[in-house]
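Bumping my old thread because nobody answered last time. Still need a sequence for this structure:
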């Protein structure tokens, strides 16, 4: 029996049982769609992580208060195990492998320009922090540390936030006045667009929980302490209701590990516990974030694979019924000389056809994924990898669950098959 005739027989069988085939392939369609969507979400998440860290130089080292090490206090906290702002900034002078230290304190606030309002993340930073994290203005300028000392109410807006507040007219932002927590600030600059997503909103407005600079507003560190975090600090300034992060920059890539060792020793000498702060270089932080993102994607793909398995059981059930319905046909084929492999391949091709058609329909359905996810705060990035993975799973499901019914059909004896009623 030629391959063309086998395929013709398969198509005839499928076409005469259209409704049953469609119902059988529904699980494959949904499973393929789910896998493609999950991979797309994973890709978008990985890109968001990369975008979030790409503005950090490879020599940067992030220093944050370790959990359980004495409250939320960071520089200036009342906790005995906290660095003051001055102690943090002095690392660039006292440590041989650290050339610069930036500091930031973050909170969220209502931001308004006229009738346009939003809730956004507010970061109080110093000049060094802006330099280390490569915050570069598209228009205007970054404020200076002197603005913080003088308590000048100035602000630099992320690209997306400026676009929102000024309704697309970003050029008019510089020099304009906006309100942060009801206090008037002068916009001195708008940052270059970084792109990507900082994460999924968790309430309070999408920008309030975003971790990308595009959605943030930046003000001088000392101004943030006085006007946005609710306190001016008790030990050199800091703490309050905001979360503080210190970013140190090593002299070069080869100095990163020596700088980390120096920083830990320095922290230990001041706080009495070198582990009271987490000291991590940018590369390790990025790798950890990417690993977490990949793990979540793998778990979601595993869920989609379970859907495929359930669908495969459906295919097996349909083919088992088909074998019984076509027992006499199998007997006739064997009586005229059809070999066992011919029967095996015919039913296997039918299983693959059903699963592949379901996979292709799932791929077509995945075109709607961006529209479906547009009702959420979840980003989606279509990829060829997702399509191939979805189709691959569908074909493997067809082969795996179609083999047993096909093998059973091929083992039928001609006489018993012809006498089957």
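Sorry it took so long. Here it is:
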């Amino acid at each position: 029996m030629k391959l063309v005739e086998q395929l013709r027989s398969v198509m005839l069988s499928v076409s005469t049982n259209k409704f049953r085939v469609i119902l059988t392939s529904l699980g494959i369609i949904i499973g393929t769609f789910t896998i493609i969507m999950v991979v797309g979400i994973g890709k978008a998440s990985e890109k968001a992580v990369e975008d979030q860290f790409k503005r950090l130089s490879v020599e940067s080292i992030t220093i944050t208060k370790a959990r359980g090490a004495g409250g939320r206090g960071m520089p200036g906290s009342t906790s005995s195990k906290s660095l003051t702002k001055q102690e943090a900034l002095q690392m660039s002078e006292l440590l041989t492998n650290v050339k610069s230290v930036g500091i930031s304190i973050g909170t969220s606030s209502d931001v308004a320009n006229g009738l346009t309002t939003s809730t956004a993340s507010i970061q109080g930073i110093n000049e060094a922090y802006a330099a280390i994290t490569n915050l570069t203005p598209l228009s205007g300028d970054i404020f200076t540390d002197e603005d913080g000392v003088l308590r000048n109410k100035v602000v630099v807006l992320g690209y997306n936030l400026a676009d929102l507040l000024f309704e697309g007219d970003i050029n008019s932002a510089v020099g304009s006045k906006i309100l942060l927590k009801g206090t008037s600030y002068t916009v001195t600059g708008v940052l270059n667009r970084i792109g990507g997503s900082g994460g999924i909103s968790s309430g309070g407005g999408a920008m309030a929980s975003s971790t990308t600079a595009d959605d943030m507003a930046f003000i001088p560190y000392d101004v943030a302490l006085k006007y946005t975090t609710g306190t001016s600090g008790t030990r050199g300034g800091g703490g309050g209701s905001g979360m503080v992060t210190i970013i140190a920059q090593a002299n070069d890539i080869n100095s990163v590990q020596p700088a980390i060792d120096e920083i830990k020793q320095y922290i230990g000498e001041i706080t009495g516990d070198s582990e009271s702060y987490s000291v991590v270089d940018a590369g390790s932080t990025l790798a950890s974030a990417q690993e977490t993102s990949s793990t979540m994607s793998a778990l979601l793909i595993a869920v989609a694979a379970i859907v495929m398995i359930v669908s495969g059981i459906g295919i097996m059930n349909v083919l088992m019924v088909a074998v019984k319905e076509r027992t006499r046909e199998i007997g006739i084929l064997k009586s005229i000389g059809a070999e066992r492999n011919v029967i095996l391949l015919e039913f296997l091709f039918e299983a693959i056809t059903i699963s592949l058609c379901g996979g292709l329909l799932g791929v077509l359905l995945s075109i709607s994924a961006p529209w479906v996810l547009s009702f959420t705060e979840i980003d989606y990035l279509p990829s060829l990898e997702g399509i191939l993975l979805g189709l691959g799973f569908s074909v493997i499901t067809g082969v795996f669950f179609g083999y047993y019914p096909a093998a059973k059909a091929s083992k039928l004896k001609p006489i018993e098959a012809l006498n089957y009623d």
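The first strand starts at residue 60 and ends at 65. Let me know if any region looks off to you.
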